[in-house]
Specification:
By secondary structure, the protein is mostly helical. 82% of the residues lie in helices and 0% in strands. It is globular.
Length: 400
């Protein structure tokens, strides 16, 4: 796929602001932890608020839906307002959301606070690619994005087990209050290290029209849908597969999931030099590797040790994919990074929800291995399709 914009020198900070990159990574880690906490606190939250566990589970869905909407709307805002105060406002909303959840007297107020979290999640993630372009040189963007995604992955690894542990000790309300304190510290750090990033101008009408006409964007977003739709048609249902097919017990399950999380984090770290080397080649390879590993899991998954090794290896490439597609957006469309970054976030969230729904239908209608087979086929298709659309039509040094 060809690049569609000039180099990012006009939008990149003349001096690398790595402190600001780390502050964004910490805030995104806090965001990810806040998003994932209800899954590990489902039972005590439902009991305390006197509602069903299914209703509490909808707090995650509500967050995702608002994240999609906000990620699509953040570009016009970033064209009109300085990104520094915009990010600090999102950070304040993050703190308030967790505090309100901690003291919520009923489920209605709790769900309302989670909607606010969705707005913050979509806003910050929608700006991530453009922020990397503004804060570091274009050659350092893959490294910056790997740091940002690394923060999210660390949170994904730690949120569920730590949430469950501290929820049993101090209660679920204290857990959310504690996360609010962590969020406040992260936003305070951001206040001191985040530079001013003035808007670049342009009207919403021109921006939307320009984005819709960007060559290669829609095919790229279709590839993103395949990547995450395939991954989450199985990822959401790893537990029933491991319990029903691999025969793991609770302690073994924790080991497998920890290995997956750690490998995903390592994948985000390895992604930067690989994407710098050859983004156009590495992206389809990440999908192909996922398909091969899941096929091996389908054949060898009866052994929990083999399953642990294969799922961990799969996690490595899952971590690379997130950095890879954000790097593609930042390099291919530097002058439209906010809009294309928002579309990327929306596509990922939609693909995750669609994959989870599809996998759920398969596991209910067929068996625990059906989502795994579907994920293998979809990811194989993603590898083939991405390889086709990433074929160069002209010499493009940024993608070589």
């Amino acid at each position: 796929m060809t690049s569609t914009a000039s180099t990012a020198t006009t939008t990149t900070s003349p001096k690398p602001a790595w402190g600001a990159i780390w502050s964004i990574a910490i805030v995104i880690a806090a965001l990810s932890a806040s998003e994932l906490l209800p899954a590990s606190l489902l039972t005590p939250m439902a009991s305390s608020l006197n509602v069903s566990e299914g209703l509490i589970g909808q707090s995650v869905t509500a967050t995702a839906i608002l994240a999609v909407a906000t990620s699509l709307l953040v570009a016009p805002l970033s064209r009109r307002y300085n990104r520094r105060p915009l990010l600090l406002i999102f950070g304040g909303a993050l703190i308030a959301s967790n505090l309100v959840v901690a003291i919520a007297p009923n489920a209605t107020i709790m769900l309302s606070a989670r909607l606010v979290l969705g707005i913050t999640l979509g806003g910050v993630w929608g700006l991530a690619a453009s922020l990397a372009l503004r804060l570091v040189p274009s050659t350092s963007v893959p490294r910056a994005l790997s740091i940002i995604f690394g923060g999210s992955t660390v949170a994904a690894i730690a949120a569920a087990p730590l949430g469950a542990l501290f929820g049993d000790v101090v209660g679920w309300r204290a857990v959310f209050a504690g996360v609010a304190v962590v969020c406040a510290a992260a936003v305070a750090f951001q206040y001191f290290v985040l530079p001013s990033m003035a808007p670049l101008g342009g009207s919403r009408k021109v921006e939307v029209k320009a984005v819709l006409l960007l060559p290669g964007l829609i095919p790229g977003m279709a590839a993103v849908l395949l990547f995450w739709g395939g991954a989450y048609s199985f990822n959401t249902y790893i537990r029933p597969y491991l319990e029903g097919v691999s025969g793991v017990n609770s302690s073994e399950l924790s080991v497998v999931l920890l290995c997956f999380g750690v490998a995903s984090f390592v994948g985000t770290l390895l992604a930067a030099p690989l994407m710098q080397w050859n983004l156009r080649l590495v992206l389809p390879i990440t999908a192909a590797a996922q398909a091969v590993l899941l096929l091996a899991l389908l054949l060898l998954g009866q052994s929990w040790i083999a399953a642990a090794a294969l799922i961990a290896s799969w996690g490595l490439f899952v971590g690379m994919a997130g950095v890879g597609w954000s790097t593609w957006v930042a390099r291919s469309y530097p002058e439209h990074a906010e809009s294309t970054g928002g579309l990327l976030v929306a596509a990922i969230q939609v693909a995750m929800m669609s994959g989870a729904l599809f996998g759920g239908a398969l596991i209910d209608g067929i068996n625990p291995a059906a989502p795994l087979l579907a994920a293998t086929i979809i990811l194989a298709g993603a590898a083939f399709y991405t390889g086709l659309i990433m074929r160069p039509h002209r010499k493009d040094p940024k993608h070589s």
